[in-house]
Specification:
Helices cover about 60% and strands about 10% of the residues. With about 200 residues, the chain is an alpha+beta fold.
Length: about 200
């Protein structure tokens, strides 16, 4: 699975279909990586009633019972840091990840976890949406391409006397206008979508 572009917005609780898939991945990782297993790799833990205790791997203090891992609830808490959470938040804090999804990916890679795939219907729908988006953007892109060509081609072609060279250079400019025209068309659609 590739890292999703929307992962940052998903961590800010934007509840949509993309967030639901991201949440399924998070839940899957939490189910695959036991917190006591991950915490035991970070610090020496000893059994203390219903919890495992050790030195906090975040602040690396001296107190050997400030960090608690609760296997039944799959949670952790550091009484000195006054922080707690699940296995992903522990990974985020210990490894210094800026976002929750980067911590999730670290656990996926470290424990060789296979993430759940989207259903085939989702991929078909994405293909349909991409085709529709291309149908919408193509005429806008070509309009920008003509505009850019009319503006920049005369400047570049000015002074080229040989007709064949002028024609080749004109074709090259026309091809080079595709990138900027595509970018301008996409930005125009984004602005209209936000309006």
């Amino acid at each position: 699975m590739t890292i999703p572009e929307y992962a940052d917005s998903a961590t800010q609780n934007h509840f949509d279909a993309r967030f639901e898939q991201f949440q399924r991945c998070i839940d899957h990782v939490k189910g695959e990586v036991r917190i006591e297993t991950y915490a035991a790799e970070l610090t020496e833990l000893g059994f203390n009633g219903k919890s495992l205790r050790g030195k906090c791997p975040i602040h690396e203090g001296e107190n050997s019972s400030s960090f608690a891992v609760y296997p039944d609830s799959q949670r952790w808490f550091c009484y000195r840091c006054d922080e707690g959470g699940d296995v992903i938040s522990l990974c985020k804090a210990v490894e210094g990840h800026p976002q929750m999804w980067t911590a999730m990916i670290s656990l996926v890679q470290g424990y060789d976890i296979e993430l759940p795939e989207r259903p085939q219907s989702w991929y078909r729908r994405q293909d349909e949406k991409a085709k529709l988006r291309e149908q919408i953007i193509a005429p806008i892109r070509e309009s920008y391409r003509r505009r850019f060509y009319r503006i920049y081609a005369p400047i570049t072609l000015d002074g080229i006397e040989d007709e064949q060279e002028r024609e080749r250079e004109g074709e090259r400019i026309w091809e080079e206008m595709l990138g900027p025209a595509s970018y301008a068309a996409k930005k125009r659609l984004e602005r209209r979508g936000n309006a």
